[in-house]
């Protein structure tokens, strides 16, 4: 999936020798799914995790964050530059000065009180070029101040936003070839293509088996593994439109 979810545990330690309580922050790992946590206080919900800057849009997009927990939610934002997306050479680097790569997210730090909402604003600074641009934005829970009330054990979820900036003229071109191993795909357009509802259907059977969906960025090549015989079908979503393919 395009969104990565990070689970964090924050534990308040008991004061020792008259010292103030300190917080210990542990990164437990990544979960390849989009979660809306309701298991602990300080929970965060986002109204969306994929943002598209269209050529006829205003150049700014808002993401609404809600705190569904019982304690204030402390967040920070990180903008990541994405190069060679969808390839083995893909890099996602946190940028200290996001203006240099054409996307800013503000505010960079925010506090959301219980049962309240705040907006994260994303601004496209570079307009639209010949090729689709891809960014990611981390929305990260951080430890509250050591003197915050109600500190205990909490499990918080971090989200990663996927951001696309459409090219001036979008060109959708998904080329496919049926082979004994499956269907070989190549995105020869200049925007990403999302494949979903991917199935292999035997000729003499009514039941189709599901195959793994995927996203192809411009220039990406993939093989849809499928047994010989029958046909492969999927829905390709690109530039806000969908089309069913069968091979």
Explained architecture:
This protein has 247 residues and is mainly beta. It has two domains: 44-165, Sandwich (Immunoglobulin-like), CATH 2.60.40.10; 174-246, Immunoglobulin-like, CATH 2.60.40. Helices cover 0% and strands 52% of the residues. It contains no helices and 20 strands. It has strands at residues 5-12, 23-31, 44-46, 50-53, 60-67, 73-83, 91-94, 103-106, 109-112, 117-124, 133-141, 154-165, 174-179, 182-187, 193-201, 209-210, 214-216, 221-225, 231-238, 241-246. The strands form four sheets. Strands 1, 2, 4, 6, 7, 9, 11 and 12 form an eight-stranded mixed sheet that branches. Strands 15, 16, 17, 19 and 20 form a five-stranded antiparallel sheet that branches. A four-stranded antiparallel sheet has the order 3-5-10-8, with no helix packed on it. The two termini are 24 Å apart. Residues 1-42 have low confidence and may be disordered.
Descriptive terms for the model:
mainly beta; Immunoglobulin-like; 2 domains; eight-stranded mixed beta sheet; five-stranded antiparallel beta sheet; globular; disordered N terminus
What's this, in brief?
The protein is mainly beta and 247 residues long.
Question: What is the CATH T-level topology of the largest domain?
Answer: Immunoglobulin-like
Please state roughly what percent of the residues sit in beta strands, choosing from under 5%, 5-15%, 15-25%, 25-35%, 35-45% or over 45%.
over 45%
What would you give as the CATH superfamily of the largest domain?
A: Immunoglobulins
Tally of individual domains = 2
Order of helical and strand elements: EEEEEEEEEEEEEEEEEEEE
How many helices?
0
Mean pLDDT across all amino acids: 83
Class per helix and strand makeup: mainly beta
Report the principal-axis shape. Answer: globular
Radius of gyration: 22 Å
| Low-confidence regions | 1-42
Give the proportion of residues in helices. Answer: under 10%
Q: State the CATH architecture of the largest domain.
A: Sandwich
Provide the CATH top-level class of the largest domain: Mainly Beta
Q: Could you tell me the number of beta strands?
A: 20
